[in-house]
Amino acid sequence: MGMSFVQTDTAATLGEIQACSADVLASAPKSVLCVSGGTAGVTGVTPTVRHLRSTVMFEIAPGQVEWVGGTWTIPLNITSLNANCTLESAYICRRTSGGSAVSAVASDTSPSVSLGTTGVKTLNVTGVRTTGKYTDVAYIVLSVTTTGNIEVFTFMPNQTISTPIALPTRVADPTARVNQLGRLGSYV
Fold first, then answer.
1. Which of 38, 143, 181, 184 has its CA 20 to 30 A from that of 55?
2. What share of the chain is helix, strand, coil (3-state, %, to 5)?
3. Which residue in 62, 60, 70 sits closest to 134, CA to CA?
4. Is 2.60.120 the CATH classification of the domain at 4-187?
5. What is the Cβ-side half-sphere exposure of residue 54, based on CA atoms within 13 angstroms?
6. Which residues pair with 156 in a beta bridge?
7. Where along the chain do its domains lie?
8. What are 60's strand-pairing partners?
9. Nearest alpha carbon to residue 140 among 95, 110, 98
10. Is the pLDDT of residue 187 over 60?
């Protein structure tokens, strides 16, 4: 079973970076920190975008977990619409806590979700299993395209991102089992 992370009012510690996105940064992208059991944001966030740009970022620092493959559900609550904006791609990247690339986890380059109405827009992106260090972070980049010049929209960071990331399964100490069997064998 995967873990969930709440979007908060806190900016991402890595800031606004392109990460593994193929799209360049928007003129004023916005990043949000997501926390397991966190407090949902209450302040709207307004990025500025022109053409196809990496616009919204979510950072998740899951801690000591297993990065298993599966579906990432990424909601974006649009509170101030813009009919000239369309959510065009989503990238999920694994980064070090310092921001260096580890691996690409997933991408969806064809969701074509209009931001012309308010409400929650949800993307489901299938990711792969990755390996790295327990200090690594998930960095999600949503890219938006516009039909006009410079455009803005507002989202409320108050949704929960569901991930396939899981708490590690405990494995019994194999050395202890061998020692136990060894002792049993000496009594026979």
1. 38
2. 5, 45, 45
3. 62
4. yes
5. 21
6. 77
7. 4-187
8. 34, 138
9. 95
10. no
Q: Pairing state of beta strands 48-49 and 53-60?
A: unpaired
Instruction: Tell me the three state secondary structure of residue 174.
Output: helix
Q: Return the number of other C-beta atoms located less than 10 Å from residue 180's C-beta.
A: 10
Q: Which two tokens stand for residue 4?
A: 């969930």
51: DSSP letter:
S
Tokens, residue 29 = 């992208």
Contacts of 177 (CB under 8 A, 6+ apart): none
Closest of 127, 5, 122, 19 to residue 60, by C-alpha: 5
Chain segment 97-148, per-residue pLDDT in tens: 999 999 999 999 999 999 999 999 999 999 999 988 999 999 999 999 998 7
Residue 38 in tokens: 């966190």
The C-alpha atoms of residue 163 and residue 3 are separated, in whole angstroms, by 6
Predicted TM-score of the model (pTM): 0.88
Which DSSP helix (H) or strand (E) runs through 67?
A: none
